[in-house]
Amino acid sequence: MNRSQWLLYFGLLIFGIFGGQFVIRLMRDGDFFIAEFIIGFIGLILLIISLCTKKTYHHGKEDFE
User: Fold this and answer.
1) Helix (H, G, I), strand (E, B) or coil at 17
2) What whole-number distance in Å separates Cα of residue 46 and Cα of residue 14?
3) Residues 7-64: pLDDT tens digits?
4) Distance CA 41, CA 34 (A)
5) 8-state DSSP, 35
6) CA neighbor of 24 nearest in space, from 11, 37, 12
7) Which of 8, 16, 19, 64 has the fewest CB atoms within 10 Å, measured from its CB?
8) Whole-angstrom Cα distance, residue 41 to residue 14?
9) DSSP class per residue in 40-63
10) From residue 40, how far is each of 56, 57, 61, 64 by CA, in Å?
């Protein structure tokens, strides 16, 4: 498993758990938990980084072939 796949899965896991909890609690109770928001945002950033890394890796690989 390469680096971009690991970041993708880890980002999805963190974003799914903490981002999902944040959205559910915000909609249900109207509570804004800053810790869940920050960790969910970090998961989103990891997703974006992994997708950009994967795209540049595949783009660079095509240039050498």
Assistant:
1) helix
2) 9
3) 889 999 999 999 999 999 999 999 899 999 999 999 999 999 988 887 776 665 555 5
4) 10
5) H
6) 37
7) 64
8) 9
9) HHHHHHHHHHHHHHHHHHHHHHHH
10) 25, 26, 32, 37
What's the one-letter identity of residue 11? Answer: G
Query: Residue holding tokens 């498993």?
Result: 1
Q: The tokens 């050498």 sit on which residue? A: 64
What pTM was computed for the model?
0.75
Taking the mean position of all CA atoms in its chain, how far away is CA 43? 4
Instruction: Give me the amino acid identity at 45.
Output: I
Q: Which residues are within 8 A (CB) of 49 and not within 5 positions of it... i.e. 6 or more apart?
A: 7, 11
Task: In whole angstroms, give the CA distance from residue 49 to residue 64.
Answer: 23
